[in-house]
Design brief:
Chain B: Belongs to the ABC transporter superfamily. The complex is a heterodimer of chains A (about 290) and B (about 375). Chain A is built from 13 helices and no strands. Chain A is an all-alpha fold and about 290 residues long. By secondary structure, chain B is α+β, with helices and mostly antiparallel strands. Chain B folds into two domains: about 230 residues, P-loop containing nucleotide triphosphate hydrolases (Rossmann fold), CATH 3.40.50.300; about 130 residues, OB fold (Dihydrolipoamide Acetyltransferase, E2P), CATH 2.40.50.140. Chain B starts with a strand and ends with a strand. The chains are: A mainly alpha (about 290), B alpha+beta (about 375).
């Protein structure tokens, strides 16, 4: 080591240490990216080539047939529709569920910080508690509620389930973010004559971009990736992507078409990946902003 | 424009009394400063006037109309906050126009009003900027612009200068004073800075622990304090105070002050009834530093001056003044002198005590003896 610990010279980056750190980081990156690599290369190989052995190797014959199959032809359940209709089901479930839970979380955070009322701490604590309740516990009561509401087995029913389950998290995000938001601004707006919702939509919400991104990414990822609620509360025409993927991969009849399964799995993961890539840098910023003052 | 009247105002948080019956009346166009140490209730009082906090009992009137139950936006007031409270997502122009927009003023009228106010405050070139792109002084101006554009019955200021650096604070203070002279709008201004209070106010209300200690003109508050707290709080350095028993001999009432490097000093007292009642009992004797100075700078007009030699303990030069500390009755007293007075530590120097400006308080009740 070339004097990295010497205190006689100005501090500078130690080259050897740096190289070691970068090599280690590179190995980690490879480790994490390897599964994606396997999925990608095998999804563009013919089935024979996969059976032939090397999972890591690039394909000798490139083919996009598995992707087309997974998207629109593969046998899922009893029908050969591919993942397409289920992908649309998921979109129709995720978009309203994310939007509604984020807006409601923002309103909750606004009320819990700027329109304090007696017992608001208890209300917040109970909402927080909902973050820690395991999914399995709510299955049966939720099934009953959906039955009573007449939403059992429908996409709106799934939206409701995810909104209710996500509200604890979104409220937590927005409450912590708004706790650091100066109350004098609310007072100034009150003197200016703005009411409850005007203050919310004109002053608070436009200043909430970082935490909205956090909430959207968090909710989108969780709801899109959810399997248990999807499997429990969906019917034939409301099955979400994750459940359909399971039905595709776990079908016990016929040949295991690994290349189609890989393509399907990537298709299922694609939307969350896109959301992260587009708004990932706001995610960290927003998490920090919410975390500084709580 | 209108007068502002606060009648027996009380405010409780649960069992805690924050304001214990405040009575204040400020005339149309007056500048009322609420001053006091932190936690005295001055900001709470301002917030109740604004309607941001409700009151427990009492009444608040603008003109002769009670506003106690009204929503803040219906009180015809405008407020400048300590943190300026500019909406971060809006431009300066939108910030200033927001209140008018809420009241349904047409776009054309809003634009004109914004332009007028911006010109008045010399912020026209800033109208398209966001608050985050402004300096502290500029934000302060925008916050004032937002209040001015409303043309309210009463302006409320909540420590508006406390976030500025020292130089800017003095500039903005002058600016606020100039603005008030021009607009002549009734103003209520909260500060903990006694200099701000004295320079800006037409009337000062000194508060402590939710009680009004004294209400009067800056001159009354400074020269004629009602109790020990007001006397000590206003003025810097604060008033010199000694607790001494009142004595009487053939020549009248007097106090005896012992001093280092000299014999005891006889301080003649006015022969008022209040003082006669205190014979043999202690009083607090108070004298402002500027009433205790070098003979050359003593204000002799109609004043009773006591000149003598005192031992200088500490000298604190402060540019325009030199503060000389001398010890009387074991208590250090500060004298404000001209720099030319040439006092030296550990040496005797001539002092002139302006006894006409001496004030006396009852040590038990802390109330002024007249």
């Amino acid at each position: 080591m070339s004097g990295g610990t010497s205190q006689d010279v100005a501090i500078r980056g130690n080259t050897v240490t740096r190289i070691i750190i970068h090599v280690v980081l590179f190995l980690f990156a490879v480790y994490y990216l390897l599964p994606l690599w396997v999925m990608l290369v095998n999804s563009v190989k013919p089935l024979d080539e996969i059976r032939g052995g090397n999972m890591i190797a690039t394909p000798q014959h490139w083919t996009f047939e598995p992707w087309l199959q997974a998207w629109s032809q593969a046998q899922i359940g009893v029908q050969a529709t591919g993942l397409k209709p289920y992908f649309l089901n998921s979109i129709m479930m995720v978009v309203p569920a994310v939007a509604i839970s984020t807006i409601l979380g923002a309103l909750n955070g606004y009320v819990l910080t700027k329109w304090r009322f007696k017992g608001d701490g208890i209300v917040f604590a109970m909402l927080l508690l909902s973050c820690f309740i395991p999914f399995q516990i709510v299955l049966i009561p939720m099934a009953r509620v959906l039955g009573v509401l007449g939403l059992a087995g429908t996409i709106p029913g799934l939206v409701l389930v995810h909104v209710v389950y996500g509200l604890g998290f979104t409220t937590l995000f927005f409450r912590n973010y708004y706790a650091a938001f100066p109350t004098e601004l609310i007072r100034a707006a009150q003197i200016d004559g703005a009411g409850f919702f005007r203050i919310f939509f004109r002053i608070l919400l436009p200043s909430s971009a970082p935490i909205i991104v956090v909430s959207v990414i968090w909710q989108f990822t969780n709801i899109w990736n959810d399997f248990l609620f999807g499997a429990s509360f969906s019917d034939v025409d409301s099955v979400p992507m994750t459940v359909a993927l399971n039905n595709l991969v776990n079908s016990s009849t016929g040949v295991k078409e690994y290349n189609v399964h890989f393509a399907g799995a990537i298709l299922a993961a694609l939307p969350t990946l896109i959301v992260y890539v587009l708004s990932g840098r706001y995610f960290v910023r927003g998490l920090m902003a919410g975390a500084v003052k709580g | 424009m209108a007068s502002l009247t606060i009648r027996n105002l009380k405010k409780n948080y649960g069992a805690v009394e924050i304001l214990k019956g405040i009575d204040i009346e400020i005339e149309d166009g007056g500048f009322l400063v609420l001053v006091g140490p932190s936690g005295c209730g001055k900001s709470t009082l301002l917030n109740t006037i604004a309607g941001l906090e409700d009151i427990t009992s009492g009444d608040i009137l603008i003109g002769d109309k009670s506003i106690a139950g009204l929503h803040p936006s219906k009180r015809d007031i405008a407020m400048v906050f300590q943190s300026y409270a500019l909406y971060p997502n809006m431009t300066v122009a939108k910030n200033i126009a927001f209140g008018m927009e809420m009241r349904g003023v047409s776009k054309a009228e809003r634009d004109k009003a914004v332009a007028d106010v911006a010109e008045l405050l010399q912020i026209s070139q800033l109208l398209d900027r966001k608050p985050s792109q402004l300096s502290g002084g500029q934000r302060q101006r925008v916050a004032m612009g937002r209040a001015l554009v409303r043309d309210p019955q009463v302006f409320l200021f909540d420590e508006p200068l406390s976030n500025l650096d020292a130089k800017l604070r003095v500039d903005m203070r002058t600016e606020i004073k100039r603005m008030h002279l021009r607009m002549a709008t009734t103003t209520v201004y909260v500060t903990h800075d006694q200099i701000e209070a004295l320079t800006l106010a037409t009337k000062i209300a000194v508060l402590k622990d939710g009680e009004l200690q004294q209400f009067g003109t800056p001159d009354e508050i400074y020269n004629d304090p009602a109790n020990v707290f007001v006397a000590e709080f206003m003025g810097s350095p604060s008033m010199n105070m000694l607790t001494v028993p009142v004595e009487e001999d053939a020549k009248g009432l007097f106090l005896t002050l012992t001093r280092a490097g000299g014999d005891a000093l006889r301080l003649p007292l006015p022969a008022s009834a209040a003082m006669k009642a205190r014979i043999g009992k202690p009083v607090i004797f108070g004298l402002r530093p500027e009433a205790m100075t070098d003979p050359a700078s003593a204000d002799r007009q109609g004043a009773e001056i006591l000149e003598d030699q005192f031992l200088v303990d500490v000298v604190e030069p402060a540019g325009a003044d030199v503060f000389a500390v001398t010890v009387l009755n074991g208590t250090p007293l500060t004298a404000r002198m001209k720099p030319s007075a040439r006092v030296k530590e550990g040496e005797m120097a001539p002092f002139a005590l302006n006894l006409s400006r001496a004030v006396f308080f009852d040590p038990d009740t802390q109330v002024r003896l007249r």
